Amino acid sequence: MLRRWLIAGLLVWLPLVATLLVLQLLVGFLDRSLLLVPPTWRPEALLGFAIPGLGILLSLLLVLGTGALAANLFGRRLVAWAESLLGRVPFVRTVYSGVKRLAETVLGDQGSSFRQVLMVEYPRRGMWTLAFQTGSPIGEVQAKTSQEVLTVFIPTAPNPTSGYVVLVPREDIIELEMSVEDGLRMVISLGVVTPESAPDLRTSDDRAPG
């Protein structure tokens, strides 16, 4: 009985505490954007006390303002000029260009990156794992293969930010109906949290007992 109560209590408090810690870290990080505000204009100086979370609003306004600026002709020229300066710094150029391409791939409206959850046989035939489609190779990568392949990312559990990039023949891939969020949740939880099952696609003969 005590063990059951202990597990039930942990199932209530562990997700709650983890969520609060993540929110605390996120709010603390975004509140650093207030450092961009002159000291005399900060809440501590005007009101005499800090306002937790105000940095989130400021960060959102900064992102929206930057997006509005970058969407017009003058902003695009300004961004291009800034990128040309960064492109002259060896190490910075590599990091910036890599992160920008990744952001354009993941956040862009075009393409299929991280919009499809797949099942692939990995690390060997007969063993299946979750993967995410990140693109369709073109150029030399596709030309040197005898089959049409897709670029998939196989995440490690429970940390999906690391993993392996594998080129898999399209015919060896099973597409799933679950959302990317459900797929990531399954990886992070080590398979404990699984999305609702898809409709049973087996025939009535297959489901018949015996």
TrEMBL record:
Keywords: Membrane, Transmembrane, Transmembrane helix
Domain of life: Bacteria
InterPro entries assigned: COV1-like
Residues spanning the membrane: 7-29, 49-74
One Pfam assignment: DUF502
PANTHER family given in the database record: COV-LIKE PROTEIN 1, PROTEIN LIKE COV 2
Name the UniProt record assigns to this protein: DUF502 domain-containing protein
Natural source organism: Spectribacter hydrogenoxidans
